[in-house]
Amino acid sequence: MRLSKYLFLAVGLTALAACGGEPEGAAPQEEATPDNGAVLASVLAGEHRTDEERARDAFRHPAQTLAFFGVEPDMTVVEAWPGGGWYTQIIAPYLKSGGGAYYGANFSPEGASEYAQTSLNAFSKTYLGKPNLYGDVRMTVLGEGGDIAPAGSADVVLTFRNVHNWQSSGVTEAYFKEFYDALKPGGVLGVVEHRADGAELPRDGSSGYVYTDDVIALAKSAGFNFEAASEINANPKDTKDHPFGVWTLPPTRRSAEMHGQEDPDFNQAAYEAIGESDRMTLKFRKPIAADGALLE
């Protein structure tokens, strides 16, 4: 299939998801308006979410995270590499309630690996053809020379637990530039990622963990201003010292190297006690003026 400049796989198509200092302590949490908070709570409690998906709210804190990033129902939001759509099932109905627009910027179906194609197909099966629930889901391709949304149109670009993948592939700089180009002046880039801080780990993404200062440097290099950090998704129990990287922890629960045979005698209980990973939650903003200034 030949890709056009924009690959809008809307709900009727088939396809599928030197740095500055970090503020001390947790940033004050932004609160959604009462009406928007009620809408989001309704989405989170919706029957379209399974019990297993809801159980992860305790570690992923979707309501607080989206409020911190300032996501509102009338916005245009891009989610980079939505994967299986855990956040899509929250963000898309939330935006539908206010007339907003959801773009899922995924990898290209052309030349995709078997694993990637399976992921794309699963996303398609789950989210396409359900406009009453998910609204107008539009899919674009990240990293293929096109735009993940019309240039300067997005209010918010979000990415959850993906930067390590891009580090290992050497595409982080290019992807962050695409995020910058898609956003309106004053728009927000929100990043949640497994946090390597406090551990001695390689900086190539191979452990699944990433250092906060590396993400800040990437964003600043792309032109963003670093605005705030939050401890919403922190987990002090996570030592980051795991035999199979972050994937040793829930929800992956790996007990062998990738593609290896899982070990039935592996002591998973210790990692269940930790829970999901310690994560950074970072908010960046695209400057309004060419000199990097923001409006007061």
Automatic annotation (TrEMBL):
<dbReference type="InterPro" id="IPR016980">
    <property type="entry name" value="S-AdoMet-dep_MeTrfase_Alr7345"/>
</dbReference>
<protein>
    <recommendedName>
        <fullName>Gll0496 protein</fullName>
    </recommendedName>
</protein>
<dbReference type="InterPro" id="IPR029063">
    <property type="entry name" value="SAM-dependent_MTases_sf"/>
</dbReference>
